[in-house]
Amino acid sequence: MAGENYNDLQAFLTVAREGSFTRAAAQLGLSQSALSHKIQGLEARLGLRLLTRTTRSVSATQAGERLQQALAPNFENIDAALASLSELRDKPSGVIRLTSSEHAAATILWPALERFLPDYPDVRVEVVSDSTLTDIVADRFDAGIRLGEQIAKDMIAVPIGPPTRLVVVGAPAYLDATPPIATPRDLTGHDCINLRFLTHGGLYAWEFEKDGHALNVRVEGRLTFNSLERILVAALAGFGLAYLPEDMVRTHIEAARLRQVLDGWCPLFPGYHLYYPSRRQPSPAFALLVDELRYRSGGALAVR
């Protein structure tokens, strides 16, 4: 493949993936006009319209979708092959793209990067924090970080944190003014702060378990967020009950800013895992970061 064609196809894939010439141009280090010229030249050579442009968005045509589906896996293999050449250099290099939940990025990923990056100045890391269950293959991430139970079975999963649990908490002022809570069913009479998953738009059902009996409760309340940090702020302000990672609220419980309820109903979950496709050949830089992140008490790499 000629270098010009390769670059133009890569430009097309980036625009199709991002749905935006502005974001794609920023990623590729090009001006928007230069990027548009590349796409127009590619479309002219193929004799097909690949992208539909409106004032607000960019989307692939039917021909563009077919080309994107055919090219994306091959470009991933090319990128992996090029990245693997860095092992021939004195120092690993390259870009590592990660998607992570906000909580995992703050509590696990960032402390690891603080240790990792000073030793490998030629490695660049891009982190996208959100609560969605991202398709890391389609969005060309090297790996994702989520709770172990959320990971697809065909992925390689590496434990990077201990087992964890979510706990129900509320501000003392809220709990003192509302009915007592003895079982999860009592939550239906309370103002609960919901978490919405952007991937499918659904609300998270609070998961409980006791004596082998599992119970999911769909709570209601006046506030819904897609951010755990916002939920914590609202709970501290007394706007209702929250279901949050225990390590996120521990200091607030100890300082009596929050009070925990239903302690015996909150089960342990598999902790955070880093996951990536089993068919992808990790670059040396990626392999080093995986080793830095690995939870040492969690055992060896697990193939799911």
Structure characterization notes:
The strands form 5 sheets. This protein has a 6-stranded mixed sheet with strand order 4-3-5-15-6-16, covered by helices on one side. Strands 7, 12, 13 and 14 form a 4-stranded antiparallel sheet that branches. A two-stranded antiparallel sheet has the order 1-2. The protein has 9 helices and 16 strands. The protein is α+β, with helices and mostly antiparallel strands and 304 residues long. Helix 5 links the parallel strand 3 (94-100) and strand 4. The longest helix is centred in the N-terminal third of the chain and has 23 residues, at 62-84. The model is unreliable at 298-304 (pLDDT under 50). It starts with a helix and ends with a strand. Helix 1 (3-18) crosses helix 4. Helices cover 36% and strands 22% of the residues.
Question: In terms of topology, how is this protein built?
Answer:
Elements: H1 3-18, H2 21-28, H3 32-46, E1 51-53, E2 58-60, H4 62-84, E3 94-100, H5 102-116, E4 123-129, E5 143-147, E6 155-159, E7 164-170, H6 172-176, E8 194-195, E9 206-210, E10 213-217, E11 224-225, H7 228-236, E12 242-245, H8 246-254, E13 259-261, E14 268-269, E15 272-277, H9 284-293, E16 302-303
Parallel strand pairs: 3-4, 3-5, 8-11
Antiparallel strand pairs: 1-2, 5-15, 6-15, 6-16, 7-12, 7-13, 7-14, 9-10
Helix pairs in contact: 1-2, 1-3, 1-4
